[in-house]
Batch of 3 targets.
Target 1
Amino acid sequence: MKIDLRISALLLAITWGTYAPASETASSGRWTIWSASPASRWEDAFVTGNGRHGTMVWGRPKDERITCVHEELFIRGWSRHLKTVPFTAPLLPEVRRLVNEGSNDKADSLITTEAEKQMQAMGARQRWPLIPHPAFDLHIRHLDNVSKADSYRRQLNMENGVTSVFGCDGGQGTEDVFSSREHNLNVIRLKAGKGEKLHVLLALEETPGRKGMHFEHNLDSAFLFAEAKAEPGWLTYQAAYRQDPGGYEGTARVIPKGGIMRQLSEGLEIEGADEVLILLRISPLEDWKKSTIPTVKKELSGLPASYCQLLAPHAKLHGEMFRRMQLDLGQEEKWKTIPVEKMLSDIHREGMTPLFMEQIHAMGRYLLISSCGKYSPPLQGIWGGGWKPAWIGGFVWDSNINLAISAAAMSNLPECAESYCTYVEHLLPGWRLNARNYLGCRGFLVAHYNDPENGYLTHFGRSFPWMCWAGGAGWNLRPFYEYAMLTGNDAMLKERVLPLYREMAAFYKDFLLMEKDSLYHFIPSISPENAAYGTDTWLSRDATMDVAIAHDVFGILLELGEKFNLPAQERKEWQHYLNHLPVYRINKDGALAEWVDPHYPDVYDHRHLSHLYPVFPGGQLRKDKGEPRLREAAKKALDKRFEFDTSSAHGLIHVALQAARLGDLDKVRTNLNRFCRRHYVYNSLVTSHDPEHQVYNLDAVLSLPRLFMEMLVYTEPGKTELLPAWPKEYADGKLIGIRLYGGHQLSMEWKDGKLTEVQLKAGKDDTLQVYYQEKSKSLQLKAGQTYQIKL
């Protein structure tokens, strides 16, 4: 008998609306997504995370898996302690000569062959440095035949970070899971249904699928050993890597309420319990021989054996972060009545819907909160239920991490912005060594892929000589500037941002080459992941992105120089470099060219939009900013990328971000609809890199909140525009708590495409020009004051 999905959803909403499970008590329940179907694969699992620990809850009733993850677990190709940065600086003059002669392939071969030779001698034999992997699965098997469940439901409460399964035992039993921010562990509670008892077998098991080769790594022999043990009240797991001296451990305290616990060879059997509480911590080890299990057992034994006591401090911390900013499009009731599968079916058929916008915006911020810890989120965030992630699931610095953290400071998550900045500061010694050894320069040279512990540039090869990418560091320092500006933190600007930009200026002084035209040129240069027509290598000269990033760096230095009254001679020098950078080229199609040098013909059919850096994330060009001819050329270049219609989810979002800056609402609408209709979103509300759920990847879901914010609010120093790219036919709603440059916080409401209320809380004394349609208003702000703005 087939039941209409809408009716089924309504019945479930009525059923669960009368029952408030414990996991809901620490939140309003407003921001809860749900499904009436089990997650049969890990990609559809609802996830939890505290930035370091995380879980993926999936499986079928009576046979559940909780894949446990930690951000610091990597299969490495060599010891993390090796200093693997080749010395190729003496080759730079010859590389430049060959590039200028048009012998780019020879220049590529010269530097990559020498670097490869040195890497092999160091013992670093793979160019794909490491693979993130799951720690293990907590396998939960319910052994009794219990009464048939009235209904099954799994859900994720984004407001308190708890994922729950109702009917997990085939009956009325429940399962609640969260990753505690307060105690840095995963908490799992199993609870018997009314009139029932739990009978479960618990085991820590290696996540299935570790076999074969993956990007030069032999997974079969990746570990010296990996073993699980059980003793009364405890489950443990120990693993040691083969190529690296590190490893990791898992320690789980198992606390039954009532019943009998039996130790078995495969785990712990618990029978007759009303409830089972599991406190599970993963401990990465630099030296696997130095076990932390005794210490962790002592710490876990000191924690309350109460789920509610453990949840309360976590929910307070997580919820305060989540609630700071909200996009509310009036869909609250639909969250309660429409399951995730129905919502995704609707957008596949209809395109963008208000419910999807609300849910994916909330999910993007939830995932950012849950995955920013010691590191910023790589391609899969901290999650992954397999051993063979695409592109090694890596830390990729030429649009992926950039987009992933783009919403952090603007969406009022300074903790996530700080996580990124602290992470980059940890990598700076490695980036300095890259610049010195590869190019003989001061300053920084970013690694396209890197081991997150050191930042060394080890990923390169013929046709992709990443040691020649001068622009990467400037791109990846810009979030420092945005973070300081959006929080109004002048001390950070002076003490953390300014020194980094001075070092970037030192890099350019050493690297840039003045030629007979009295301009400083980028030789060699790279436009990330793209090669001009007729060439077999990315190696080039004067890629527009490299020039644009240098513009950005020197422009910010001059801004800070004026703000902090820096020495006139230093400012004069920065202005000199800015004045003598190559001029952007407009090609024969009227488009902003991807390479300033006309010897490099444009390639339009590509997912990257590097040459449009001046539009986003830079700030040189916008619909009302920059030279008119360059604005028109940027629009034409965007037309070309738009016509290509990339299958890459992050490429679609990147085009839409730049279209929003240029005021092209048609492209914003179209790319959002393309995204909605192509099955980029799993039932977990995590996104895929490719259509039809091909590659689990967080770039899109983490960057969509930034896109929605850019559609609603544009901000730069001293200026804000409201509703700059929000189509009139899109939903009415309100935005609460967005950050503006100057450290101000803005909330607003709109109806029928028109503002109805705007409120601003000033972060500091400031002058702010507010624009809306054809209107503008100048405000003199006083720190801490709240203003109702009428336009």
Target 2
Amino acid sequence: MADTRPILFFDSGVGGLSVLGPTRALLPNAPFVYVADSAGFPYGTKSEREIAVRVPALLGRLAERYRPRLIVIACNTASTIALADVRAALDLPIVGTVPAIKPAAEISVTRTIGVLGTEATVRQPYVDDLAARFAADCIVLRYGSAELVQLAEAKLHGRATDPARYAAILHGLFGQPGGANIDTIVNACTHFPLVAEELTAAAPPGVRFIDGSAGIARRVAHLTQGQDWPEHSGAGVAVFTRLDPEAEALTPALAHFGLHTLEAL
């Protein structure tokens, strides 16, 4: 019999869809569950303690309910704070999402990198460690924006967003001392690739944006290599910790990612 255990993707909102997309492209027959912690959204403005308590407990419940073969924490904030605790609590592979500082350093010419994330992510010691290990010869500037998360969510809901807001947010990086030299920006929140076009349009010419979604997809494919998949699958379930009209309004966008069923946790 085919192994029907899903891959479970977890985020505070819809940002993890930017990770789900490339993973589905590599594993088209994989069943999957996408979980948005809408009752806890947004994570970026919460304290480390709140996230460290909430995420492992919630993922424990999800593991019991859906019996996944692997969990992807498709959220930089949750990963940089709670990844170790989740791995200690659950006996299955856990793939985290961390800022793509290493690949950014590999391609930066000016040796000045911007890290654009949530307020909670950019202040983490984990980011300090990544910068020290992989970008020691670079100037690494950071900026946290809760507003950009909201803009990405609004776009997925089909609502228009103001281009001036993206320029104002990027000024948080370029307006810092030395910021004019930035040539590469790490999208250190999975929401931000969802507004990649808007960010590129608002940035100076030649600035590149990079994120870890493709690398995460390859990691998931590697960890599941040789495993059985249903012959005809590729469909998924979207789960919300608070299923309200705001979540239900996402139905057309979710269908684009193969999520045709909505459930409440």
Target 3
Amino acid sequence: MTTIPRAGSAFLLAQIGAHAAARYAERVAALDLTPPQTGLLRAVAVEPGRSQQALATHLGMPASRLVALVDGLADRDLLERRRNPDDRRLHALHLTDAGEAMLSRIGRVAHAHDDALLAALDDTERATLHRLLTRIADDQGLTPGVHPGYRQV
């Protein structure tokens, strides 16, 4: 009789991660956004005025892909490009008032998503899980707050 190995922790992380990403995409679709768009809005909010090129490097994505994301959000008046005062060839990215409001809505959706995904855990377990996952992410050299999916675009 063959013994089937139990699923390892790495598999479970991948399984839960794929599930969480799909559910998050469904939730933000109700805001007429994609996960990369929500991540871009968050990244701009964290460091307003960063150039498109610097942001593309930070996210680990091709600059051409970032331009398309910025264009879509700018067309919706969620982001704006301003000339960089230090180098007029560069555009500095900033949230608009509508972008700030959308980021608040995204925050509420993300909080509800987190609560739904972690419903089986109490507050202490959630804090422990977060601490352990942060330690793993740090050890693996992952950029805090940046989904690795940007690198595969």
